[in-house]
Structure formats: C-alpha cells, structure tokens
Amino acid sequence: xxxxxxxxxxxxxxxRDTVKALHASGARVVAISRTNADLFSLSKxxxxxxxxxxxxxxxxxxxxxxxxxxxxxxxVKNAAVALLQPFLEVTKEAFDRSFDVTxxxxxxxxxxxxRGMIARGVPGxxxxxxxxxxxxxxxxxxxxxxxGLRSVHGLHQGRNxxxxxxxxxxxxxxxxxxNSVNPTVVLTAMGQLLSADPDFSRKLKERHPLKKxxxxxxxxxxxxxxxxxxxxxxxxxxxxxxxxxxxS
Length: 248
Hints:
The chain is α/β, with parallel strands linked by helices. The protein has a single domain, classed as Rossmann fold, CATH 3.40.50.720. Helix 1 (13-24) links the parallel strand 1 and strand 2 (30-33). Helix content is 42%, strand content 15%. The chain has helices at 13-24, 36-45, 59-66, 92-120, 144-156, 163-166, 189-194, 198-207, 216-227, and strands at 2-5, 30-33, 50-53, 74-79, 124-129, 176-183, 238-241. The protein has nine helices and seven strands, in the order E-H-E-H-E-H-E-H-E-H-H-E-H-H-H-E.
C-alpha cells in the first residue's frame, strides 16, 4: 500500500517510483493519493494497480476509503507536507495540517494495516519514508522537523520491547517489522521547494561527503530492501540515504 501526499498534493517522485517498482516486481499494489489526475496517469502506466483517492489528513475519510482494501502484507507510508514557515510565523492551520498528514496518518494507516496482518496471522513489513530532517535542522521547517521526528520515533517502536507499548505499536511479537528510510533532500516536487534557494542547495551538496544529492532511485531501493526478506532481521531501524551528510 502506498500513501504519498507532498505539499503539492501529487503522487509523484518517491511515491510514484515506488509504486512502479513494486508493480514491476509482480506485487498487487494499492496506490493512495488525494489527486485523481495523478492516480489516473499512474494507472495507465501500471495496469492493474488499485487507485484510492483520499486525503490522508482526513481521519474519517481515510477510515472509510481504506476499510474495504483487501489484505495487505507490505505498507509504504510516504505521506508528508512541508509547510515552509519560520518558527515565529507558524500558524495553527499549518501546524494542524502538518500534524494530521505527517504524523497522525502514519499512525492511523499503520494501525489499520497491522490489525489486518494480526487478524490473518501473517508477518509483514511497514516502511515509513521519513527524512534526514529528523536528525538535523533545515531553515523554515519549524513545523515539519518536530512532527517528522515524532513520526520516525513512533514507528521505530515496532521492536519487541516495552517501549513500543507506549506508542501503541507492539508489533514485534506478531512478526511485523517496522523501519524507516531517511533521505536527504531529493529533487521531487517537495524537494524543489526546500532547495529553491541556490545558496542553501549549494551548501547542502558541499556538506555531503559524496558531493551529490540522493536520487529517487536510491530511496526506492532502500524501501524495497526493507520490504523484502533480505531484511528479515531488521526492525526498529532507519536507513540514512543522505550521501554521508550526518557522518561529516
């Protein structure tokens, strides 16, 4: 299952390419977006995927639209909004929107999918596409960073220990793995908003030891690894796709 909602509200970039990669591998894919046009074009590229049009920031609509989706074994949660406001200018509307999409929907959709896995008695894998911003600060992301950080922390509690109970995600005993992928700025629609300042973009790339930005394909490959049995003993972890930024 794929959920993708960047600030431009389109199914593009990481979400779209993940759908395409899973479809190419033979998986039955449910693609979620609030934008019908993106779902329509994706359905033409990937015949047989199941498109679901819903705003993941709307709890009741999400519950209704996803309640009838068939059995899910793998979940990729890629929903987020990046509302570029300095701390002193953050509005209630911006905070609520960021919270609803970036954090609350992560919990809701993961909970729905996990309940289905447990009811069927099957193992599964949940991958949350988070951000390097959970570990470092970027300009004008006063809302995105703390909300994203709590999202990553909450999903990481899929481990089989007592801490996960506090987050309502004690999934380890059910053989459900929970991990995240944390990329640096990737030049998707959202990434272009963050790197619109050429000076910021230059400094970011210079900070990366590899002297490059991450490509969408790099992120998708990490997602596929965490979904697959090749990561069978990996849970409660996060893969950094940051071109070495945090190591420098």
